[in-house]
Design a protein that fits this description.
The protein is about 75% helix and about 0% strand. By secondary structure, it is mainly alpha-helical.
Length: about 190
């Protein structure tokens, strides 16, 4: 079995416009990206299409982008593509899976409009990163499993050896802590 190529070498392939970049990215990150897409989408075929689209989008965006973490970059692309696909599907089918997850945070996170949107998004991202860094490791992991990977309380409980009720309580408390943190940072008024 061939050893997997290091990320810096894969990024060099992207910058050099070598088609091997996609092949090496797939070898190393296809399963990771599929897990992200499948946690959002119920269809195996839709998840596979999102993963394929993610590698194409990475090809189109590197350069000019030069991600520090290829796995995080591919994961974010995959997640965004899967959410966009789900939203399109929900519009057609009215079948909700991720909307309750996003609604849980929508009550806390501020909506941004107009020219200030980019600045607000950067400030919000920095505040979220600071908040997550302040959490105990288990609370941070559970928060990310719910709001990044869109896992259900049942899935999280099983993975962490907890009850669903404990997971829900922890998430509720963490959202409340996030709200207080954002208010203290002046992001929420």
């Amino acid at each position: 079995m061939n050893a997997r190529m290091e990320d810096d070498k894969i990024l060099t392939l992207y910058r050099n416009r070598s088609e091997d970049a996609i092949r090496e990215s797939r070898k190393k990150y296809e399963n990771y990206c599929y897990k992200i897409a499948k946690s959002i989408l119920s269809s195996h075929e839709d998840a596979e299409e999102c993963v394929s689209d993610a590698f194409v989008k990475a090809w189109q965006s590197i350069p000019p982008h030069s991600p520090k973490s290829l796995s995080a970059y591919l994961g974010a692309i995959t997640r965004n593509l899967a959410i966009n696909r789900l939203e399109a599907s929900l519009t057609a089918k009215r079948n909700a899976k991720i909307l309750p997850v996003l609604d849980e945070l929508a009550e806390i996170l501020p909506a941004t409009e107009g020219q200030e949107e980019m600045v607000n998004e950067i400030l919000l991202r920095q505040a979220l990163n600071s908040f997550l860094a302040s959490l105990p490791l288990q609370a941070r992991r559970i928060f990310l499993q719910r709001y990044w990977y869109c896992q259900s309380a049942k899935e999280i409980a099983k993975a962490f050896g907890m009850t669903e009720s404990n997971v829900r309580v922890l998430l509720h408390r963490t959202r409340n802590d996030l709200k207080r943190f954002l208010e203290q940072e002046g992001i929420l008024v």
